[in-house]
């Protein structure tokens, strides 16, 4: 009983509201398939690569990580997920420092989703307005839901920021006053988003026979230009795209584990693998269908335009105005789907830090609706701060992707925790999968840090060090270091509690 007093209280107070369906949808949102086939990956394609094959390879090589996450999730189903596993099974200080760094790595991703939510509305309104000759939609696209990559006036920038911020605020308020609705909102948005993506795949597939007869009008209408060169498949070029798929989709497995303390009985075992398989389908098949319809050479010529992508082509090919609207709403829904999951998950990490006395106790305080209200408020403040970066400079959106090297390092550490648990439990399967996962994460990290590879989300390139990205990563890790040692000093001096002892046991439910 004395050990229990190390924690803030003897029970988390969170309610088990999350079903298997909720957890799967959280994981699908975490991996963002709908935005990966929008403007997340295809504009950065390199000659000789096949995106559908790169997606398949990425899915296969991340399966060991999925296994490691699933095993540790079942062994330690607690709020905070991988932060708890690392801090309890590997090292308390490392778990705390990297847990904080990783958690505050999330708001930039949510800020990007808020940023692209308005960008997707711009594309949908502009495309539907043009195709259906609705001048009011074109006006809204050009004056209200403006293209963030264009030249914006100050008033347009402020309006853009306000629209994105209001969307995020509404989702925050839902989670504060009805936390169960937070799961429900994510699930509903996930079902809408996933179904519309499947409909989009069907639309493009049905139009494969006459694709090249119809698509020139689309290119002309939207002034899309490109140079088609003969396609020669390159395995190195395809492998080069793997980190893009990792960065945008397949490695993000923390959502379900982070809310495991609120999971209903029997909902944990399959949630990660189901989420990964659904993501694989919703990323791989759109790119495959696009190659079957247009041919790799054609796609490689026009993908870099940003305007030519799976979603915009599907909307155009749909022809039927009702189906076009359904697809447009589905694309917009993906952004809000991701924001909805983010609000749920980030607050759980902050709650876990506070419950362990790493953060101030106020962040583990629940309101009368059993919602970690102050953790949500911190999320709101952090995300709104990062949301300003893409508006200060459109290239700021790419700068926010620099979280990838830190995320890969974090997953390497999760794999090390899996190795240690596998050794301690004499579990050969876990040990094997965790070793494979650790090797893969190390190889990917090395690829990102080779300057000549020139990954847009790395901290180094052939032109030198990206000091903004480097400072960003250092600041995140620095925040973790400061949080841990400040908490250790304060708790010992003021409360007589050595927080390193907290990490010697699993937190109560």
Automatic annotation (TrEMBL):
GO terms for cellular component: plasma membrane. It is a multi-pass membrane protein. GO terms for molecular function: transmembrane transporter activity. The keyword Nucleotide-binding does not apply. It is found in: Cell membrane. Gene3D superfamilies: Amino acid/polyamine transporter I. The chain crosses the membrane at residues 20-38, 50-74, 158-177, 183-206, 241-260, 272-302, 322-351, 372-392, 398-418, 430-452, 464-487. Keywords: Cell membrane, Membrane, Transmembrane, Transmembrane helix. The keyword Cell membrane applies. InterPro entries: AA/rel_permease1 (IPR002293), APC_superfamily (IPR050367). This is Amino acid permease.
